[in-house]
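Let us work through a complete example step by step.
Step 1: write down the sequence.
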Amino acid sequence: MTVLVTGGTGFIGPHVVHTLRAREIPVRALVRNPARATRLAAWGAELVGGDVTDPASLIAACEGVDAVVHLVAIIKGRPEDFERVMADGTRNVVAAAQSAGVRRFVLASALGLDERSKDAVPYFAAKWEMERAVRESEFDHVIFRPSFVFGRDGGVLPTFIRLARFAPVTPIIGSGRQRLQPIWVEDLAEYYARAIDDPTAASRTFELGGPDAVSWNEFWERLKRVLGVRRPSVHVPVGLMRTQATVTERLPGAPVTRDQLTMLELGDNVVTDQSAVETFKLPLVPLDEQLRRAT
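Step 2: predict the structure and record it as tokens.
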């Protein structure tokens, strides 16, 4: 079995490639810039140049592939950027994979996406179209909707750690009572690796989270306890954060965007269906251990 991984040079992608290669599964990684993928090549992945927005480049990438793990997404941009990269990009990958006779397609979606939320922000609208493209395809497919993904080498957790360590106060948006259910990045990668050939997962959508669902207030308390810091927390009104984001969201490294605030206001970001736990039976890293590993 050969697996094509898109988004292999992002935060989650290298962990997926590493997990697959640890099982000696042949991996082909679609990369826009091979110079950024030397780590993947060192693990034995085959690099193929291409871009999900360039349909012609996907033909060779999909040739001889048995399964696709599609991870490409953006978190900031104009509505047309989300449509081009995520929605149209997924349609392009689906079309090339179908032409190549790929058997299974594993898609990265997002927890909190549903009929109610799909039009709330361009990111969710694009994720909804990605899911629809995969569901309407000819493949056996698996769709994962993960919560916040924590790891040492990317994602949002390193930013949270810097805030807790160095900010004079810890800013918590709104009441802090909404809940999240972070999953460790290596656990997420294991889910993707198992999904490429698990017959019980075919044509299903799974919500993914870690073993602990906590409020934002409790999350910051746990993080500061692990770090050994005693700085106070302050609750910042969503409206004030939205005004700030209007000015800062286009800057590199902006802490939060207006769309992310809208998603926060949608409510808890937690698993409501235990099918993934029951199907894959993975031992998952608890939240406190996630925080210890990342600090």
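Step 3: interpret the result. The mean pLDDT is 95.
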